[in-house]
Amino acid sequence: MSKLRVESFTILLDGFGAGPDQDLNNPLGVGGTSLHGWALSTRTFQQKLFGGDGGQSGIDDDFAARGFQNMGAWILGRNMFGPIRGPWPGENWRGWWGDNPVYHVPVFVLTNYARPPLAMDGGTTFHFVTEGTVVALERAREAAGGKDVRLGGGVNVIQQYLRQRLIDEMHIAIAPVLLGAGERLFDGVNLRALGYVCTKHEASSQATRIVLSRQ
Amino acid sequence: MSKLRVESFTILLDGFGAGPDQDLNNPLGVGGTSLHGWALSTRTFQQKLFGGDGGQSGIDDDFAARGFQNMGAWILGRNMFGPIRGPWPGENWRGWWGDNPVYHVPVFVLTNYARPPLAMDGGTTFHFVTEGTVVALERAREAAGGKDVRLGGGVNVIQQYLRQRLIDEMHIAIAPVLLGAGERLFDGVNLRALGYVCTKHEASSQATRIVLSRQ
Fold this sequence. Notes:
Two copies of one chain form a homodimer. By secondary structure, chain A is α/β, with parallel strands linked by helices. Helix content of chain A is 21%, strand content 28%.
């Protein structure tokens, strides 16, 4: 059965999964780049983001790599697609990732504002879904053709799917850094009551990894 | 210089440092005993709590043990001393720990209700401080005679000391368990703005350990 998975989502010691005041210069919010220190050095991210063949293997890379295995579609909140709020001012904004985004599969972007699908190089097509989380998941599952669907975030979107118990598995990295302010991933979500348990716990010098699974 | 230290304070993956609804049967709140799985198996806790010579050494024990090194006094919030709220109904309640508590040094209990000092076996004396956090720290430092002071908790008391930047160092254990509800250690405290940074990060199979230090 196709799963809905969160992978390589980083939170910080104080629980924040994104910094405050996201804008064009701060895609992850102010201070949010400290979220991804562990990932950027991995072989997987070096290849996916920069097309290089450097980077390190090991626990960090194992977790980064598993996030791309058996993945047939993605779901993103609109703020992960870009800094624009409110109605689209046009179709110039084509995501943070250049002409050939890292996804290479259909990506379903949750938004309140309709927009035609956007086909990019390398197999990525952005579909803009205005009918909410459940419809986005249905469409992503269909597009994934039996593979899993990866829920990219952000914090608010993950919380919405968690409250509906729609996420099968979450791999979270806890980075040893304090962010101080922003959006907390687990605010207002009682994971225990929703039936999630920690099924894996492993650490490198860069981050502690946990896997939370729905029972 | 004598430091104010938090040691072996456990929080869970979702950030909670105590469960909800503390009472006589649930000293750590409902579900709160899952906070201390990593500690109970250590040689240090087996000795301190049960007088036994069993228990395991290793990373977990190293952290447990350092919490008792160079420690001349403790500060506790009143809820860590017992489940009683409001005025003391008498002097029958003498703490959770029996006649010979684990402290063996002076312990300063923050409370709004005065009570005479309580001398226990083994060198522990509970002093009840009604003049607030700063006075409690002054008295504890004086009693410690140059050694450090350990701040035991709970969550609310640690937050008060953090906001005043009075804590020098915190060793926090993050246990791979979800509690779901309770008091979050870092709620309403912007550690980064207060000048704290993560200076150590180490994990065993039982928990991830971090040390936060004031810069």
